[in-house]
Design goal:
The protein is an alpha+beta fold. It is built from three helices and five strands, in the order ββααββαβ.
């Protein structure tokens, strides 16, 4: 629905689409999420010393306390904190995307129409208006299928 995939006369496969939000510096939302979770897990610190539990506790109770504290710290550091960071990152990206779409629509900022070939070649056009961007996307797809690469410019 949002993108059109065509094959040019030279054999290149082009994906033409209207971008909903600005680029995340070459990352997708899921790659950013994976990188954040892995980074948070690698920064975790283990508990090495909880101090003296007292003379009234025997060896087994000290080990039980150390084990319980270790499990709790492990769960907090390696499960709860990365999940909270990932959730915060997803919420932030969704808010930024919603703001971007709203500002593009309300303030008539141009939409970006992008054509990307399977070999990495990319072309972009700035088009003012939702319908105009949709129509331009279809025109670009038809041109690329005919073997013509339209010039990059601001349309509308």
């Amino acid at each position: 629905m949002g993108r059109v995939i065509v094959q040019g006369l030279d054999g290149k496969v082009w994906t033409v689409r209207r971008r909903w939000a600005p680029r995340l510096f070459g990352d997708s939302l899921w790659s950013r999420l994976r990188r954040r979770v892995k980074g948070a897990m690698h920064r975790g610190e283990a508990v090495t010393d909880i101090g003296d539990a007292g003379c009234f506790l025997d060896l087994f109770s000290e080990l039980a306390v150390v084990l319980v504290v270790g499990v709790v710290v492990f769960l907090v550091v390696f499960v709860a904190v990365p999940l909270l960071v990932a959730l915060l990152d997803v919420v932030l990206v969704l808010l930024l995307t919603a703001g971007s779409v709203t500002s593009t629509t309300v303030f008539r900022r141009p939409w970006t129409v992008e054509a990307r070939a399977d070999n990495g070649t990319s072309h972009t056009w700035k088009v003012v208006g939702w319908r105009a961007a949709h129509a331009h996307r279809d025109e670009v797809a038809a041109s690329l299928e005919a073997g013509i690469v339209p010039a990059e410019s601001v349309v509308g």
